[in-house]
Amino acid sequence: MDAREEVLARIRAALGPRRERVEVPRDYHRQPPEGTDVVALFAERVADYRADVRRVTAACGVADEVGRVVRELGIRSLVVPVGFPDAYLSGVDGDGAGGRDHVELRRDDPPLSTAQLDDSDAVITECAAAVAETGTLVLGRDQGRRALTLVPDRHICVVRAERVVGTVPQLPAVPPPATWVSGPSATSDIELHRVEGVHGPRTLVVLVVGC
After folding, report:
1. Which domain of life is it from (predicted)?
2. pLDDT digits (tens, 9 = 90+) for 118-127
3. Most CB atoms closer than 10 Å: which of 68, 109, 163, 195?
């Protein structure tokens, strides 16, 4: 008997005779309480994570708000995934004028290198879905490569109200690979000192549209 078998034998002896399998009840709730405003709840939970949450009443106002965010944060280079709506970028001066407010739109086609992503000020995406109870953004294949939202220091995410669900069990299927984002990237050391931007963007701006 090798060491592995000896350890397993001791575990079996300690557990005693084999018992019948016990079924664990899975009666957790699968939807929020009736009457819950899931969009408002999502905005509240995302803000709890220290994200900058902004409400936009109609899709036609997204471009203006994106332009406002870009100017406020001093963004000069913005990564844009394949398939991102150009209409949302019309408020950004990316026409090549080269003026003080000019922003370089770095489209991921062909794919940008890691060095180019690291040198970019921010990335802008939509999301495949969002969860109200957990304040979570779910990004799938249609939102671009995973590296796009992990390397730049700022992430602007446009969330359509109809894509917000109440709970995780209500999430639709999201084309893999899926990235789940709950607020800006942050961690704490053993003394509970919060450090942001360790595993991804330290700044997250969420534009909730159609609310």
Report:
1. Bacteria
2. 999 999 999 9
3. 163
Q: 4 lies in a domain?
A: no
Between CA 42 and CA 38 the distance in angstroms is 6
**Residues 174-185: pLDDT tens digits?**
988 899 999 887
Contact indicator for 120, 149 with CB cutoff of 8 Å: no
| CA-wise closest residue to 70 among 100, 45, 42 | 100
Residue 25, in any domain of the structure: no
User: Which is it for strands 77-80 and 129-131: parallel, antiparallel or unpaired?
Assistant: unpaired
Q: Tokens at residue 76, please?
A: 């000069």
Q: Kindly report the pTM of this predicted structure.
A: 0.82
Q: What is the CB neighbour count within 10 angstroms for residue 60?
A: 10
Tokens of 153: 């220091």
Residue 29 lies in a domain: no
Cα(99)–Cα(66) distance, rounded to whole angstroms? 18
**Cα dist from 175 to 111, 126, 128, 137, 145, whole Å:** 19, 14, 9, 14, 12
Residues in the chain: 211
